[in-house]
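Human:
If only I could read backbone structure tokens as easily as an amino acid sequence. I am handing you a single protein, as its sequence and its fold in token form. I hope you can help me see how the letters and the tokens relate. Thank you; the sequence and its tokens follow:
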Amino acid sequence: MNVTETNAEGLNRELKIVVGADELEEKLSSRLDDLKDKAQIKGFRPGHVPKEHLRKVYGRSVMAEVVQQAVQETSQQAISDREERPAFQPKVSLPEDEAEINQIFDGTCDLSYTMTFEVLPTVEVMDLSTLELERPTTPVADKDIEEAVERILATNPNFKPKDGPAQTGDRVTIDFVGKLNGEDFDGGTATDATITLGAGGFIPGFEEGLEGVTAGDDKIIEATFPEAYGEPKLAGKTATFEVKVKEVAGSEAPTLDDEFAKSLGAESVAQMRETVKGRLEFDRNMASRLKVKRALLDGLNEGHTFELPPTLVDTEFKAIWDKVLHDQEHSKKTFEDEGTTAEDAKKEYRDIAERRVRLGLLLSEIGSRNEITVSDDEVNKALIERIRQFPGQERQVYDFYRNTPEALAELRAPIFEDKVVDYILELAKVSDKDVSLEELYKDLDDGQGQEHDHDHDH
């Protein structure tokens, strides 16, 4: 094998690899020897087929296998010998000239092919101890616990049948049959459906149509499905519902006592308050971590400049852009609706793609240098959590992840990222800062909190 570098511009690499005809002939001869003992050809006893006859019968097909194996082995060897770090699977270009291919298969010509790829850049990691970060914190006060308990009482009301007309907050029990253009449609019929007026659980116009009804009423309600409704056949369509009102029940807040606490799984009101406090602390700690993690990633992004493999950026941008277009199609919105243009949006998302790739390479480098790894047990725990999200489909989900390495890598990636982030936070100068609850949660729902959510193990 002979390897010549024909391009080394930036992160691009192109290698010309030549495998001698004599080397191919040696591999072919070895394969024919193996075949000799197995081949069954009419007129010859097993194991006694002349090698030249085998070459005549199987030579070209076996040589095709030899060439394929030679390309696989020599391309890997060339990368290993040169200690290259490809950013993605190299592209191999075999000869296209039919005459040359025939000569290779006939054993009269060397195999010459090219391999092109991009390499990962050399990453010089900044002094992580110079990072200065603020971690926003909001302690849980007694009034926060009481307010949360009040919300629990309000969202778990007791309902009692009443004779008067239905109003906001009441629960109405109904049977209904929905029709589109006079025809029934799937999912448009229900018996003993319960609707809490004002909760927004039904399509626009339906709950409003139940305002003022009393038990025993029959009513026709027209309501329109939203343009972005999940079922395309119904999206934007106006349906007519024939409704029979079976009960109207008024709501009242339950009494806060141990009996109520037990209905929610707690042993007492005191334990319920402790549970509420724990949940509030957990939620605020998560928000605090997201904020300090975002600040850390911002600091890393600003503190490093190195060339990025174009193909990695293009791949990341395509994934982002495809999702943007899909979301627009689903929401029926345009770039103009969002106060921008396709061209400006592309530039913005290209910047985000570059940020993600830069941070991915950087976190991967920091993790590698410091021997940060993700154990199989950690991945299995993440897999169990994912499986729990699909009750009734546990076996299918488990089999999917176990048979799909890419999907399993998607579970491993965020674990790796969090472990690297924890490592950096130990080195950085992090100071806690008390903030209001509003400030703690500000901007956490703007879609930018998880800017970096793909596999770093390039």
